[in-house]
Write a structure and sequence with these properties.
This protein is α+β, with helices and mostly antiparallel strands. The protein is about 35% helix and about 15% strand.
Length: about 900
């Protein structure tokens, strides 16, 4: 989420901090040796010796009085997050999430769990563990740096060192940290001093889940008082501070049905009672169990009260947690994303250990448009949750959903779609205007509907056909493809028995790229990615902002969206196309000021810079194609979800996506950019499905995500004037054959006008039609001796089509044999049927594939002419039939 500007600022800061020649082995040795010598002197001579005293005094300069520093600790400074106007408060980070505890309120088990994992000798060491640091120093010299900080050192580093102490190298800071830890232990001597130190440590620790302090963590995760936790719960809390973001129990939890008889996952029945549980195989539970093992021998305060069997039993205890309540937060999924972005701004070098993001007293102005957010939340809830209600009409009425929209929403009842998400982006700036990660954040969850999980940024979802505009844009940009490139929409074995089909099980034969994209044909999309290269397409799609799982690899099916990515990244990809091929970094924050009102970010007024991904010409061609999907005369199926203001249609471009097994349905699109640069250029993306990835029951994007996208886009744009897409220079329009996409030939029957990047207009005449001499009487191939007359006609010639791919050609020949018998003929590897584009209801180019198929048989020869009869012209009736011979009869005697 970090903007280009923030990265630049962070880089500038890191450059200023970077020591000359940093990272060299020599420097590590030179700096580590004084630490080791200092510690050896302390161990062997009780801090004596001239060298030790000099080093100690040098590094102690400027360090605050530890007794006063600990006594004056302030634990509460809330960060406030607001919308783009600064007038609507969205959240107070840390609100009611820190509860200060006194030592006598901390159970011995909590103390033992903490010291067991963080500092085994806490109760007896002088503030640092000399043996551990010497060992770590040796490892550092060997090039294997690691930590060895005690609880006292961690507290000092977090709260008791001034900013100046962090200047210089890490090792110099370490020396100051050790010295201040020694001073703190001396200032707070004995058992009482140790109690004060560990109490402050447990009060200041961040435990994830927006909780600071161990008491708040106990409430936030388990809904219990600290004294009421179990052994396993004490251990897991002690496990979290090492990496609060990674080990956050809420983020690691799944919704688990706890009904006595759980419903069948395939049925429409929902779980009556569920619970959030962290899987026992997760990293945090593995770490918990490790701590429980340590506690068997490292529990000086509570060990006598527990048997080894109790620790073993605790390792098997399920981690059941109480859902976090954030009812006071507005746009909570968005706020969590803002918090992550804020971490990168205020703690760029220690993002996993950034307490001040919540308690630094910052005032954060975000990009969120609160009015748009309410619109998006309303429609997402109506689409995903109203169909599950006992009385959905009352829900729609309460949400003020227009009656004209009820039919498609009510049509989702029983279709097994329980969740949805949506985002609104200003694609010219990259600012996120609305963000709904799930249909409701505070509603009761189920396996199919996990409200606190952010599908937009955390969910890995297959985009389905929604990926096609990005893939085609890559091919058009590198001039491998044009909008008129012809593909054969024929079921093909692409290897290892992979024979994808269209959802309607039809094969349309020759189609141009424009039509293939507008009507979301699968086979042309797969062929396009293979033609331009799977590896190339995979890498270039990342330039659009797409992020794939680390294990993802290019595969043949990626052309139809089988590689998982995040929906919010898909929206960025569409915004890149909308913005003339320039990807803007996604922005959530516009300004950050500290508790004293001083602006800390951005440091200067430089605007975020975009990245050129594809040419403006390639981007406009894709936009022009997708704009046809909001015009009924071009696409009567997708076009019915056009965006309108009053009775006028807004120019808009969009594409839907449905995965082959109906697990995910998407829709992404954008409006033409307004002339007024102060008005947002809107892009909207939506997802619908189930949180547990279960397929829906036959719902395609056209009856779910498409109307949801249209409803949101229509309402968020209603106050803005209508704008039109404007073509960049460098484009030309040319007339091409409607079927082949090539230059018009002698047998062209229909033509279309198409857009091209200058220099890519086809110069080749179409070759898939060849001339054949035909017997007009029979319609068969001519041969000498036929009845005639002989005529010359053009016929479909499949031989040269997709000739670089033998498997494709084999499938094409099979289709041609079926298509020669007409539309509706079934066959091929998947039993699909031939059809004229697009189907039986809509045929913009007629009932034709552009030409008939040549007959395979020759015409029969004409019969020989009958010879005339043999006659004696002087003797009446003397004619013999043809083929007979003999003398004519004599004339009768008078």
């Amino acid at each position: 989420m970090q903007t280009t500007l923030a990265r630049r600022q962070r880089h500038r800061r890191s450059v200023n901090r970077r020591p000359v020649g940093g990272g060299s082995s020599l420097r590590r040795i030179l700096i580590a040796i004084p630490i080791i010598l200092l510690l050896l002197s302390v161990m062997l001579a009780g801090a004596g010796g001239l060298f030790t005293v000099a080093a100690y005094n040098y590094y102690a300069q400027g360090l605050p009085d530890p007794k006063a520093a600990l006594g004056d600790l302030n634990f509460e400074q809330q960060t406030i997050v607001s919308d783009r106007t600064g007038e609507v408060e969205l959240a107070r980070l840390g609100t009611l999430r820190r509860e200060v505890v006194t030592f006598d309120q901390i159970p011995d088990e909590m103390l033992d769990a903490t010291t067991a994992i963080e500092d085994q000798f806490f109760w007896t060491n002088p503030g640092f563990d000399a043996t551990a640091i010497v060992s770590a120093g040796v490892d550092t010299i060997a090039g294997r740096p690691r930590g060895a900080s005690t609880i006292t050192q961690q507290l000092v580093r977090a709260r008791l060192l001034p900013a100046a102490a962090f200047e210089g190298s890490t090792y110099e800071r370490k020396i100051r940290e050790i010295i201040q830890s020694i001073r703190l232990t001396e200032a707070y001597p004995g058992d009482k001093g140790k109690q004060d130190i560990i109490t402050a440590y447990l009060n200041q620790n961040f435990y994830g889940n927006h909780s600071y302090g161990v008491k708040a963590a106990a409430r936030g995760y388990f809904g219990k008082q600290l004294k009421d936790l179990t052994l396993a719960e004490y251990a897991i809390l002690a496990a979290i501070p090492q990496s609060p973001t990674k080990y956050d129990l809420m983020r690691n939890a799944d919704q688990v049905c706890i009904d006595a008889t759980p419903p069948d996952p395939e049925s429409a029945e929902e779980c009556k009672e569920s619970q959030l549980q962290v899987p026992l195989t997760s990293d945090i539970v593995v770490r918990r169990n490790y701590i429980l093992d340590l506690m068997k021998t490292r529990s000086p305060l509570s060990g006598s009260r527990h048997q080894p069997a109790e620790y073993e039993a605790a390792k098997l205890e399920p981690v059941a947690i109480k859902p976090q309540v954030s009812a006071t937060w507005r746009a909570p999924h968005f706020v969590w994303q803002v918090r992550e972005a804020l971490v990168q701004i205020v703690c760029p070098d220690t993002p996993t250990d950034c307490e001040k993001v919540d308690t630094g007293g910052y005032r954060v102005t975000t990009t969120l448009d609160w009015d748009m957010q309410k619109i998006a939340e309303k429609w997402v809830f109506a689409a995903a949750r109203a169909p599950q209600a006992k009385d959905p009409r009352s829900v729609l009425r309460a949400r003020k959903i227009p009656a004209s929209q009820w039919n498609w929403i009510l049509g989702l009842r029983g279709r097994n779609i329980h969740n949805a998400a949506a985002g609104v982006l200003d694609y010219r700036t990259g600012e996120v205007l609305a963000y709904v990660g799930s249909a409701s954040y505070t509603a009761k969850g189920t396996k199919k509907f996990q409200p606190q999980f952010d599908v937009l940024s955390q969910g890995w979802r297959q985009p389905g056909s929604a990926i096609k505009p990005i893939d085609y844009a890559i091919g058009i940009d590198n001039e491998t493809l044009t909008a008129s490139t012809m593909f054969m929409d024929v079921v093909t074995d692409f290897g290892r028995g992979y024979t994808p089909t269209q959802a309607d099980k039809l094969e349309r034969g020759p189609v141009r790229l424009r039509s293939a994209l507008q009507f979301s044909l699968n086979i042309p999309a797969i062929k396009a990615t293979m033609i331009q290269g799977l590896d190339h397409t995979f890498e270039r799609s990342k330039d659009f902002g797409l992020v794939f799982p680390s294990t993802a690899l290019p595969v043949r099916s990626m052309g139809i969206g089988t590689l998982e990515t995040h929906p919010i990244d898909m929206l960025t990809g569409y915004g890149t196309i909308a913005n003339g091929g320039v990807k803007m970094p996604r922005q959530l924050i516009t300004k950050v000021v500290d508790e004293n009102g001083h602006q800390v970010w951005p440091i200067d007024k430089a605007k975020p810079e975009g990245t050129d991904v594809i040419s403006p010409q390639a981007a406009y061609i894709i936009t022009d194609i997708l704009a046809g999907n909001t015009q009924v005369k071009v696409n009567p199926y997708w076009g019915k979800f056009a965006i309108k203001k009053g009775g006028a249609r807004r120019p808009a471009a969009y594409k839907t996506g449905t995965t082959s097994d109906n697990r995910d349905v998407h829709a992404y699109g954008y409006l033409a950019p307004p002339k007024d640069m102060k008005q947002p250029a809107l892009a909207v993306g939506v997802w619908m499905g189930n949180s547990n990835n279960q397929p829906n029951r036959g719902s395609l994007s056209l009856d779910s995500s498409a109307p949801l996208w249209s409803a949101i886009m229509t309402e968020v744009s209603k106050k803005y004037p209508i704008a039109s897409f404007r073509a960049p220079s460098g484009l030309v329009t040319a007339t091409v054959d409607a079927f082949t996409g090539l230059k018009r030939g002698p047998y062209t029957t229909k033509t279309v006008k198409e857009l091209f990047i200058k220099g890519t207009v086809p110069s080749q005449r179409e070759t898939i039609r060849v001339s054949r001499e035909i017997d007009a009487a029979t319609g068969l191939l001519w041969q000498n001796g036929c009845v005639g007359p002989k005529v010359t006609k053009g016929f479909f010639n499949i031989n040269e089509v997709e000739s670089n791919f033998p498997n494709w050609q084999r499938a094409n020949r099979g289709w041609a044999a079926r298509a020669a018998r007409g539309s509706g003929v079934r066959g091929g590897p998947e039993g699909t049927r031939t059809t004229y584009f697009y189907n039986g209801e809509f045929r913009p180019f007629g009932s034709s594939w552009g030409a008939p198929f040549a007959p395979s048989r020759k015409c029969p020869l004409a019969p020989e002419p009958t010879p005339p009869p043999i006659c004696d012209p002087f003797v009446p009736g003397s004619c013999l039939p043809p083929g007979q011979s003999g003398k004519p009869p004599k004339s009768p005697q008078p």
